[in-house]
Amino acid sequence: MLRIDGVYRPKTLPEALDVFTENPRLRPILGGTDVLVQLTDSGKHASLLDLSLLAELKGIRRDGQYLWIGSAETHTAISESPLIMECAPLVAKSSSIMGSPAIRNRATIGGNVANASPVAESLPTLIAHGAEIVLISPSGKRTMPVVDFHLGPGKSAIGDSEIITGFSIPVVSENFVGFYERLGSRAAVSIAKVGVALAANMYGNRFSEVRIALSAVAPRVIRSPKTERLLETHPLERNLIEEATPVLIAECTPITDFRSTREYRADMVGQLFRMGMNKILNR
Amino acid sequence: MAVGKRVIRVDARAKADGSAKYVADMSMPGMLVGRVLHSPVARGRITNLDIDSARKIAGVRAVVTAEDIPGGNICHIVIDDMPLLANGEVKYTGEPIALVAAESRSAVEDALEAMNLQIEQLPPLTDPEKYADPDSPRLSGKDNIFAHHKIRRGKTDVAFGKADIVIERTYRTTYQEHAYLETQGMLAVPTQEGGIDIYGSMQCPFYVHGAVATVCGLPQSKVRIIQTTTGGAFGGKEDVPSLVAGWAAVLALKANRPVKLILDRSEDIISMSKRHPSRTHIKLGADKKGKLVAAEVDILFDAGAYATLSSVVLWRGTVHACGPYRIPAVKIDARAVATNKVPCGAYRGFGSPQTLFAIESAIDELAYKLDIDPVEFRRINILKKGDKTVTGQKIRSSCGLEECLERAVQASDFINLRKKLHSEDSPVKRGLGISTIFYGMGLGAGGTKLARTGAYVSIQPDGSVQFAVGTTEMGQGMRTVLGQIVAEAFGIPFEKVSCLPVDTSRVPDSGPTVASRATTMSGRALLQACTHLKRNLAKVAAAEWGTKDRIVNIAAGKAIRTDNPDITIPWNELAAIAFDKKAELTVVAHDSSPPTSWNPETGQGDAYVVYSWCANIAQVAVDTRTGEVRLEKLWAAHDIGKAINPTLVEGQIEGGSVQGMGYGLTEEYIIDENGIPLNPKLSFYYIPTTEDAPTIEPIIVESAYDKGPFGAKGFGEQPLMGIAPAIANAIFDAVKIRFREQPFTPEKVWPELKGLDNED
C-alpha cells in the first residue's frame, strides 16, 4: 500500500532546493507514474517533494543551436510540440509511443530519465540526439551528457538534493537522418523489449556524427561506438547495413527474463537496425 | 415490440459517466478495512503466526485465523477440500492464512507485518505431468487426481485400422487471467438480528449465500446476499467470491462492525482463479475421402492446489474435445490433477478453449495431410441436423453450424482473399485460418442439481413493470435483454420495464450465472411469470366485459377480445383496474431447465439441452523479421437461436474475440518451478488493447431453439473459444509452421521462422 507521510510543495526552485537540502531523504515527484507505483509496491513510508509547481522546470524553447526541454514537460506536450518535432524529432517520437494517453498526460521527461530504467523510452532518443542533462543543487548547476547520467537499472549520477531542471539538445541540421525503432509486447501501453535509436548527419551517401543508442539490451541504455565508427567510415549501401548488423549485436549484452529471451533481443537489435537503416537507404 | 431491437443498455450511462456504484464506492457507518495474509510460498508448514502482536496494533478490531472461524472452515464449491483459511499447512503461493480488520488500511498492514509469518518450506509439485511420479508429493487423495472423465463410443482400435491417414499430436495451453476491471471485493454488514448482509462483486449470489452461512455457522435464513454493480467477471467471479465474502463475513462478525475487503490487483492475480493450463494428446484418423473415422484424446488439466470447479470445468472440456464433428469411434480420457499452484476455476469457455484449441488444430493438420482444403474438410465432417455428437446425442434442431461456416466463407471471400494474400511479396506474410466450434448451452448433465431459475415479476398500479431474477449482470447486458423479453411478453414498451438488483431474499435460488445460461434460463422463468400474470389480467378483462377468460388475449400491450378484436382495454387502464380489483399482480415463478442425461462410465448421453455453433475465419499477418503475429481481420459467425438485442450480440462477439486473441497471442501468466508467480501485474501480463483489436465482422445466425425465450440460446462464452486455433491455423496458412502451444509470442514464433527469407 501507499504510505505517504507528507508532501512538500515548494513554489520556486530556490525554495525547493532549501527544502531538499534540509530533508535529503525526500522523494522528488512530478507526474508520479513511476514513483507512486514503486511506493505502492514496496509499501515503504516516504515523504514526497512535489516539483510540479516549479515554473523553472517548465518550458520548451530554442536557444540558438540548442533546444531546451524543461524536466517537468509531459510526454503529451513533447510529442505535440512542433518545435521538438523540428529540432529533435526522435525525442518527440519516443514521447509519442510511451505508455498510454493517460500516462503521457502526467509522466514527464525528467521523471522518465530520473527513473533510470534500461527500458526508459526517452533515454535512447535523448542520447542519440547528444542531449545534455542539466542538474541543480545548492552547490550549483552542472551539466553532463545524458549517456553518462544513466548508470544502471534504477541507478543514475544524480547527487544528493539535486534536481533535474531540463535537457539541452543540439538542434538537428538539415542533413539530419535518424530513426527510433522499438518492439513492445502489444500495440500500445507496453514497455520496450528492445529499442534502437540512431541520429546522424548525412552528406550524399556518407554518414557523419553517428550516435546509436540501444535500450533494454544492457543494464543501462548504451551507445555502440564500433558500429558508429563503421558507419562513419563507409558509404551507405546495402552491404554496409549487413556488415554493421553483427557488429551492433556484438555491442549489446541482453538477458533472458520472463519478458523475452537473450537470443530474441539480440536478433531484434539487428532487425530494428536494419529496418531503420533501410528507411534511410530508401529515403 | 422489444425483442430483436437494438435497445441501449440500461446500465450504459451510469457505467460510462462513472456514477455506477461498485462495492469500492460503498460506505457504512463504523466500517472497517479488511485484509488477508497470504502465503508467500507454494508449499510448507506454518511455524510462526504471532496473532497477539497483531491484535495489539492500535486500530485493529479483529484478527481471524483458521481457529476463529465460527462455522466450518470450508469453502464449499463442488467437493469440500478447500479451507477458508489455511490450517497449519499451505499448498499454493497466495493461499489465505489469516485476516485482519482495522480502522485504517495502514493499521491493517502493520498488523499483517506484526504476525511475522514463518513457513517451513516443503518441495512443491508444480509440473502437472509429474502428478503420478513416485517422488512427487501427494496433495490430494492417493493419486493427485481430482477428476477423471471418460467417453467411450464405438471401437477406436478397429476404426483406426480402417483409417487411411492417422495423425498424433500434442497441444498445450497455459493460464489465462480474467483481468476484470474491478478486482474482487465484498462488504459484510452484521445485522441487528445476528445475521449478516453481504454486498459485493459476484456472478453467483446463491453460491455466496451457502458459503457464508457455512463459515459463519448461521442458518441460511439469516444471510442475505446483494450483488453490487460488477465490473467484469468472465468466470473469475463464479466460485472465488465465496472465499472473499467468507473472509469479510467472519471479520465482520468478530468485530461486530461492517467490514469492506477489496483485493489489490497483484493480490487478486496471485490468489484468485485462472483458466486451467492443459496438455491434450490427440490421435485422429480419416479415410482418403476426408471422412473422420476415429479419435482418441488424452487430456490433462493442471487444477492447482484444491479441487474447486475442476471436475465440471474438465467435464465441459471433455464433451467438447472432439469439436462439432461426426466421429463414429471415440475414446477420451481426461484428468484434472493437483499441483502446488493457485486453484484454477471458471473462465469464459470453461475448459473448452483448451480442448477446442487441440481439436481445431488437429483437424487443420489432418486436412493438410490429406491435401483437402480446411474449409472443405469441415464441410465433410461437421454436425448437421440428425447427426449424433460423440456423446451419442442426436442433434434434433437448432443446428446452424453449416450456415455459420458458409456465411463466414462468403463474407470473407475466402478463396479469392487467400489467393490474394498468398501472392503478396513482403516480409510480412499473411494467411487465413478457420475454426468451427460449438458450445453446449447451460449447465448440462454436469450440473443438473443447479439447473433451475426463479423470477419475480410485478405489475405496478400505473402499468410499469418491475422484475427481478437470480442471475446476475456482469457486463454482458443481461438486465437489458431480460427487460426486452418481459416487454415483449406483455407487448409493452421497453421503457415501462425495470430490473431490480439481485438479492437472494427476493428470488428463489437460480443456480449460478455461468454457462451462458442467463438469457435462456432466466428468460424462461420470466416468461412463466409473465404467462401467469397475463392469465390474471385476462380474468380481470373478462370480468370487465362479462365474458369467459378464454376469449381474452393479452397481447400488444392490451387486453383484446378474440371474438371481436376491436374491443380492447389499453395496458395502463388494465393495470389500474386489476389493482382496484385486488388481482394478483406480483408473482414468483420457478423454472427447471429441460432434462439432460449422462452415463459416467461410457460418457454417453444428452450432455446439454441445446448447442450454439460458430465459425471463425481469421486473417493474420506474420512479420518474418520480428516474429510478431497480428490478427488483422476476423469474420465470426455465431448461431445463437435468436438475437434478442443484436447490438449486444455483436458486442459479445467483439469482446470475446479480442479476449480469445489475447489468449492466442500475448497473455502468458508464468509461475516458476518453485511455484512463484513472475508477472502478477497488468504491466507484464499483456491483455490486448483497443489498438491491438482486429477488424471484426460479426455474423448472426438464428436457428431457433424451441425451448428458449423467443428462440434464444446462450452464447456469451462462445466468441472467445475458437479464436486461438483460428489464429494458429492462419499462421500455418501464412508461413507453413504449426504452433501447438499458445500463446504464439514473437519469442516462440521467431526461432521457427529463422531460415525463411528475412530480407526486406
Task: Record the SSE blueprint.
The complex is a heterodimer of chains A (283) and B (760).
Chain A: E1 3-8, H1 13-22, E2 27-29, H2 35-42, E3 45-50, E4 60-63, E5 66-70, H3 75-79, H4 82-87, H5 89-97, H6 101-106, H7 109-114, H8 122-128, E6 132-137, E7 140-145, H9 146-149, E8 150-152, E9 155-156, E10 163-170, E11 176-183, E12 194-203, E13 206-215, E14 222-223, H10 225-232, H11 238-250, H12 262-281
Parallel strand pairs in A: 1-3, 2-3
Antiparallel strand pairs in A: 4-5, 5-10, 6-7, 6-10, 8-9, 11-12, 12-13, 13-14
Chain B: H1 12-17, E1 32-38, E2 44-48, H2 51-56, E3 60-64, E4 89-90, E5 96-102, H3 105-114, E6 118-121, E7 145-153, H4 156-162, E8 165-173, E9 185-190, E10 196-200, H5 205-216, E11 223-227, H6 241-255, E12 259-262, H7 265-271, E13 278-286, E14 292-304, H8 310-319, E15 329-338, H9 352-370, H10 374-381, H11 401-412, H12 414-423, E16 428-441, E17 452-459, E18 465-469, H13 478-490, E19 497-499, H14 518-545, E20 552-555, E21 558-561, E22 564-570, H15 571-580, E23 586-592, E24 610-623, E25 629-639, H16 646-665, E26 695-701, H17 718-721, H18 723-735, H19 746-753
Parallel strand pairs in B: 1-12, 10-11, 14-15, 18-19, 25-26
Antiparallel strand pairs in B: 1-5, 2-4, 2-6, 3-5, 7-15, 8-13, 9-10, 9-12, 13-14, 16-24, 17-18, 17-23, 20-21, 21-22, 24-25
